[in-house]
């Protein structure tokens, strides 16, 4: 049985005041069912990362509601907020700046466990960490090493293990493969697919292109300029996209097939009716 | 009859002597605290006038270093081999001649337009620079810069001429970079990952723009990228690099439809697509690219290759066309892949 884990409604965020005010989110609303992976897709400035940060209470929205398991996230204070921090976790885009270079892998992954479950024994924590490492495809002998010893893909695995350490119900991934090499991107995408089926994770996956999202997400939310342009199941979005912006994004995806790519390029150069509406 | 057949072949297989750029056995290494870094190892290729060639590779493949060497931008590196531009050796050229070559004959579009534009000079000033250096009057340079900015799709160039780089978006800055690269009317433009920092729609526009400009102006383009998807629609020829070596090189359709190198095939299959069936798992290339300071023995790709044989661990394959194949590939099993098309697909 599916039930709603996250519900975002009428979310708005304004940065700055007076004549410097800029509306970054404008009436954003969508929901995430338990066990579902929702893709938030849009270009830079679309508000996809801001939406994620609001859900995680890393920034405060100007107005709107966010519900997590039916509870009002924006009303959480102190103990309740701390508890929420363990329930919803984030995997960052840049695996280089998001890991403390002076901490070893064991401390990076274990930090959250120690904070959220302080009474656990050291050995029990270490067992959990080893289990997490194996889950994300790293080895126990990596424990004493520091981030500098790892490649981008491996760092991203450490970041994922860190997020999973506190057993969150919701994992938000902010462009986790954008800075990785092509051959490594596929490895990490497959890891997410595995985690999804093994742990029954609920995920919000943020991306700027429609190709990676297609492999992972059950439902897709397309955003532009702080607004939701289209929400649909994977089949709907890829089979018959409705919004002109979604169609334009779809056309811009680089296609590794010369005949198709030339055709797309021709389509883009001709002023089409779909893009005419968007302008 | 024979000459007619040769005429037919000419556009796709340019005669080596007419090549605009010819690189022979190029090796580049850098000294480092952890021993010498062999960034490029024995790379040869040529670019014909008006040809669009893509160099594809992941980080550490030596693609950017190769491109920088072409313009003599690597003063600290140890370089061997020859780089001939229009019959002149770039490396033995006096500094003054090299300066005259840069911008006027051969120019470079850098990956990150924000850090490669001067933040304290106006866009117009920077676009004019290649002309001003050649002694063209301020007035004429400005007129040509305005035309060029319009040609790369900057709206209202007269108004934007006096603006600074921070007033431009990423895509617009990349257009300015392209304008700077083309204003000297070079015969070759090297574009080093020009779309990597950009949104998909903007990236597609920049690729389309480079394609259109190279068609219109007859400029040869060397397009460097890590993404086989980006260049499929615009390149004439593709060269795939790995660990500082050329793995495979051929016409674009040949590479995408009839590749005979396990690395290229692995890259193609690992790309997520927006069309076609959705596989349960994307096929991947296991492991990670080797560090240029610690290359594996034999074929550098062998630790990650599914078709590894004993010979791959000891002998470095050379780039050659297998008897049953149509194009060169640096792989010991290329002959088998060519005989059994579809074995990896």
Characterise this structure.
- The complex is a heterodimer of chains A (279) and B (345).
- The model of chain A is unreliable at 273-279 (pLDDT under 50).
- Chain A has eleven helices and ten strands.
- Helices cover 41% and strands 23% of the residues of chain A.
- The termini of chain A are far apart.
- Chain A is globular, with a radius of gyration of 20 Å.
- By secondary structure, chain A is an alpha/beta fold.
- In chain A, the strands form two sheets. Chain A has a six-stranded mixed beta sheet with strand order 6-7-8-3-9-10, sandwiched between helices.
- Chain A folds into two domains: 4-101 and 168-240, P-loop containing nucleotide triphosphate hydrolases (Rossmann fold); 243-279, no CATH class.
- Chain B is α/β, with parallel strands linked by helices.
- Chain B is 34% helix and 19% strand.
- Chain B contains 14 helices and ten strands.
- Chain B has helices at 2-9, 63-70, 95-101, 113-116, 123-133, 138-151, 157-160, 170-182, 200-217, 228-231, 252-258, 262-270, 310-314, 334-339; strands at residues 21-30, 37-47, 52-56, 78-85, 88-89, 106-109, 188-192, 220-225, 237-242, 245-251.
- In chain B, the strands form two sheets. In chain B, strands 6-7-8-3-9-10 form a six-stranded mixed beta sheet, sandwiched between helices. A four-stranded antiparallel beta sheet of chain B has the order 2-1-4-5, covered by helices on one side.
- In chain B, helix 9 links the parallel strand 7 and strand 8.
- The longest helix of chain B has 18 residues, at 200-217.
- Chain B starts with a helix and ends in a 6-residue tail after the last helix.
- The relative contact order of chain B is 0.13.
- Mean pLDDT of chain B is 88; it is low at 1-16.
- The A-B interface holds A 43-44, 151, 153-154, 181-187, 189-190, 193, 208-212, 214-215, 234, 238, 248-265, 268-269 and B 58-59, 170, 199-205, 207-208, 211-212, 226-230, 232-234, 252-253, 256-257, 266-268, 270-275, 278-286, 288-289.
């Amino acid at each position: 049985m599916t039930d709603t884990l996250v519900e975002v409604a009428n979310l708005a965020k304004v940065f700055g005041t007076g004549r410097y005010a800029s509306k970054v989110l404008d009436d954003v609303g969508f929901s995430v069912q338990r066990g579902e992976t929702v893709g938030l897709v849009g270009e830079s400035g679309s508000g996809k990362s801001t939406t994620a940060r609001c859900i995680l209470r890393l920034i405060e929205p100007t107005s709107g509601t966010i519900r997590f398991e039916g509870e009002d996230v924006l009303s959480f204070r102190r103990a309740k907020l701390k508890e929420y921090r363990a329930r919803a976790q984030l995997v960052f885009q840049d695996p280089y700046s998001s890991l403390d270079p002076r901490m070893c892998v064991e401390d990076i992954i274990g930090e959250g466990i120690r904070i959220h479950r302080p009474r656990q024994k050291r050995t029990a924590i270490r067992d959990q960490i080893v289990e997490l490492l194996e889950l994300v495809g790293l080895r126990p002998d990596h424990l004493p090493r520091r981030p500098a010893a790892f490649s981008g893909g491996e760092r991203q695995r450490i970041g994922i293990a860190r997020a999973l350490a506190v057993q969150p119900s919701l994992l938000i991934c902010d462009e986790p493969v954008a800075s990785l090499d092509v051959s490594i991107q596929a490895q990490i995408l497959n890891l997410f697919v595995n985690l999804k089926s093994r742990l029954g994770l609920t995920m919000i996956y943020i991306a700027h292109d429609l190709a990676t999202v297609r492999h992972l997400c059950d439902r897709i939310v397309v955003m532009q300029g702080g607004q939701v342009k289209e929400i649909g199941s994977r089949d709907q979005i890829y089979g018959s996209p409705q919004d002109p912006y979604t169609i334009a994004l779809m056309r811009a995806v680089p296609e590794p097939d010369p005949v198709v790519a030339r055709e797309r390029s021709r389509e883009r150069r001709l002023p089409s009716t779909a893009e005419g509406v968007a302008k | 009859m024979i000459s007619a057949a040769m005429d037919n072949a000419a556009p796709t297989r340019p005669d080596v002597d007419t090549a605009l750029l010819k690189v022979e056995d190029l090796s580049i290494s850098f000294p480092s605290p952890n021993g010498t870094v062999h960034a490029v190892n024995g790379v040869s290729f040529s670019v014909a006038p008006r040809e669009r060639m893509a160099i594809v590779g992941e980080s550490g493949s030596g693609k950017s270093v190769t491109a920088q060497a072409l313009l003599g931008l690597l003063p600290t590196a140890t370089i061997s081999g020859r780089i001939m531009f229009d019959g002149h050796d770039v490396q033995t050229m006096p500094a003054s001649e090299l300066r005259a070559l840069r911008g006027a004959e051969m120019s470079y579009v850098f990956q990150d337009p924000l850090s490669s534009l001067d933040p304290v000079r106006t866009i117009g000033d920077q676009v004019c620079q290649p002309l001003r250096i050649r002694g063209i009057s301020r007035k004429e340079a400005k007129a040509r810069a305005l035309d060029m900015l319009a040609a790369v799709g900057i709206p209202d160039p007269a108004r934007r001429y006096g603006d600074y780089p921070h007033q431009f978006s990423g895509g617009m800055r990349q257009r300015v970079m392209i304008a700077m690269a083309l204003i000297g009317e070079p015969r070759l433009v090297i574009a080093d990952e020009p779309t990597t920092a950009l949104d998909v729609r903007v990236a597609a526009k920049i690729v389309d723009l480079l394609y259109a400009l190279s068609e219109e102006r007859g400029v040869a383009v060397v397009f460097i990228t890590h993404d086989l998807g980006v260049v499929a629609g615009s390149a004439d020829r593709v060269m795939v690099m790995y660990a500082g070596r050329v793995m495979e090189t051929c016409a674009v359709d040949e590479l995408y439809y009839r590749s005979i190198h396990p690395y290229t095939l692995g890259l193609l299959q690992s790309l997520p697509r927006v069309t076609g069936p959705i596989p349960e798992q994307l096929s991947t290339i296991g492991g990670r690219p080797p560090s240029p300071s610690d290359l594996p023995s034999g074929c550098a790709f062998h630790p990650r290759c599914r078709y590894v044989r004993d010979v791959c661990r000891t002998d470095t394959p050379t780039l050659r066309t297998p008897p049953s194949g149509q194009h060169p590939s640096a792989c010991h099993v290329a002959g088998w892949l060519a005989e059994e098309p579809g074995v990896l697909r």
